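For the sake of clarity, the format in which proteins appear in this thesis is described at this point. The record quoted next illustrates the convention:

___
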Amino acid sequence: MKISILDQAPISSGYSPKEALEASVQLAQSAERLGYTRYWIAEHHDLSGFACSAPEIMLSYIGAKTKNIRIGAGAILLPHYKPYKIAESFNMLATLFPNRVDLGIGRAPGGSAEASMALSDNFLEGVRKMPDKVMELLQFLYNHFPEDHMFAKISASPLPAISPEPWLLGTSRKSALMAAESGTAYAFGQFMSEKDGDDIIKQYRENFIERGIIQKPKVILTVSAICADSTQEAKELALSSMLWKIRAESRVRNEGIPSIEEAKHYFRSLDVEPFNNRNRVIIGNPKEVSEQLKDMKQRYQADEIMIVTIVHRYEDRLRSYELIAKELIK
């Protein structure tokens, strides 16, 4: 079974951004050793709980520190940028690391309204133009504009022997149809979607048009999972991310992923039940988590499962991925 990692580069309380990024490098190296298919890192801006604002820079470093695992952005937030520059950056990565680079494309702001303004002046206009921006980006990646196009005489150099593999990330029917019509692979973010996604993925598959290096529909299902040696331990680890999410939704300034002790105190003091249907997180021991992941892959007919894990201690995050790999990667 193909499984991969989405790393949001979380900063835990008591740790620095540098330590978070160092943990990301170690995670990518461990993912390669364990047999994970790909390692993607996310883009965020002005969010104190996340360390990576420039995936392309981290990927150049991680690519040099690994040998075979596919590396990619999950995702580059295209409304903020001109497609030409993104194509240049990822063609550069694909030249340095042949047949290893994925370009995940998203349309979320990735941060505050002020950060969006500082990045691009008019983020909403970028969102409105997203279909055109995606097509322009793909034309640069494939070096294939019509002869009469104003960009036909330029290239997003250096041109790699094998283009970056394009993925569109999303949680809605609109994103699925955009991926299908653009001819990209599609990563459905189940862990952050209000919808289950069965019909969304079906729409992608039924409407897919081959336009480039992706010859047939290709789907990643991205889920949140926390695995430990025992169910009880996994539940305790999950408390940190649950409190962090509550604070984020309440727009409380987050000082990183809280410790288990802090989270326990919070839920005890309010007499709140932390485990409920609002938490779209798979939590359990290796057998419990692996069975749920296999069931989800079958249900969604996904080609691959991608896992995001948020816990306080980086050692516990790595252990979670190790336990899952032992069950699913044969």
Observations:
- The two ends are 8 Å apart (CA to CA).
